[in-house]
Amino acid sequence: MSPSKKARKGKGALSTQGKVKAQKRPIAGAKRIEATEASAAAVGAGDSNSGLAASQPTVVVHAPTGILLRFRNAEEIMADKNLKRPDEVIIGVLRKGTRGVFGGPPKVRKSWAAMDLALSVATGTPWLKWPTVKGKVLYVDYEQTEPDFKDRLLLIEAAKIEKGQDMDFSDFINVSLTEDFVTFEELAPTLVDQLQGQNYSLVIIDDLYKALGGKSESSQKAVKEFCSLVGNLSKRTGAAVLVVHHSPKGKINDKPLVDRFAGSGVLTRDAFTLIGLTKYLNPEYTKLEFEMRNFPEQPAVALDWKGALFAVSDTIDLAAFEEQAGAKKEDRSEPLLELLGTEGLTASAWEERAKVEHGIPRASFFREKKKLVDAKKVNQDEKSKRWRKSP
């Protein structure tokens, strides 16, 4: 029996032995499409001017893909009492049937946090301070072997039990792909077959660059194709799909969250929800931020690492801390000004003293110096090339 047939046998465990061959699958509901073509033609004939009926939806088949396109009058949509948003998975953060990205820089404990989130949804217990709605979760694991997954899960379980949360793993399903490697392009048809009709709430793919196989995460074409597969999985199964992804190395904290992930920006701009982790030092904490398309804004929170879980910090007031940090950042031009004294300094000597005495790096030095120049607080002597305080 082929691997793909094994995977389709029953709706339980997912088979990942060997390669799952990507195939063009027949479009579900082909008979419906044929009938719809006839009805669409009949409806369209009722309005020879526009081709679109004003009083009832016109359904058109997009020939290259077989996708049904429904043209609906806005008045009808407004009056449709059965039309409602999908159920929430994480209250105020993520809905079923939508797509999200979860990530941060290397070694920020993304997989630990993603596993905690998955187990929270599978058990209907809060994730950090956000309530979840209990539902089935599939964790597509490109990062850990099953023994590694088990060891981490045991630690997370112990930490959650210590917090008084009951653990039941029956709705938390793992498929490990570290040994029997299958790209997401190869795996996606099997996932749709196995999960369709099974009422999954959440699928987590950990993580993007391995799921792409040999394709580059910087390739817009490759990431766009991946997003199409994720969108199809979400639509066919009704589950939310959350992709774990990393940020590039270097200083990225000042960038908007949508621009803080590595590679092509297609992934983050396709997502309905972005969840980002950023690690800070002195004091040490991890900042959790959100950007969401269909929810009210969520304030960022500071997290502490508690052995196997993140927890909302009870020692750092993030709003107050960032306000103070921002004030300090704005004040750096004044210490820079005082370094000039009465005699002034050459640019190189000024930069060196700023680094030694105030820990101001090169890029920040030039930024703060520009502030002083723009404010006309300093000027440069043409003959000596020394920078001095303006009179």
Report on the architecture of this protein:
With about 400 residues, the chain is of the alpha/beta class. It has three domains: about 5-80, no CATH class; about 90-315, P-loop containing nucleotide triphosphate hydrolases (Rossmann fold, 3-Layer(aba) Sandwich); about 330-390, Arc Repressor Mutant, subunit A (Orthogonal Bundle). Helices cover about 35% and strands about 20% of the residues. The chain has helices spanning about 5-10, 30-45, 75-80, 110-125, 145-160, 185-195, 210, 220-235, 265-270, 320-330, 335-340, 345-360, 360-375, and strands at about 60, 65-70, 90, 95, 100-105, 135-140, 170-175, 200-205, 240-245, 275-280, 285-290, 300-305, 310, 345, 380, 385-390. Helix 6 (about 185-195) runs parallel beside helix 8 (about 220-235).
Topology:
Blueprint: H1 3-8, H2 30-45, E1 58-62, E2 67-71, H3 74-79, E3 88-90, E4 94-95, E5 99-104, H4 110-123, E6 136-141, H5 146-162, E7 172-176, H6 184-195, E8 200-206, H7 208-211, H8 220-237, E9 240-246, H9 266-270, E10 273-280, E11 285-292, E12 301-305, E13 310-312, H10 318-330, H11 333-338, E14 345-346, H12 347-358, H13 362-374, E15 378-380, E16 386-389
Parallel strand pairs: 5-9, 5-10, 6-7, 6-8, 8-9
Antiparallel strand pairs: 1-2, 3-4, 10-11, 11-12, 12-13, 14-16, 15-16
Helix pairs in contact: 6-8
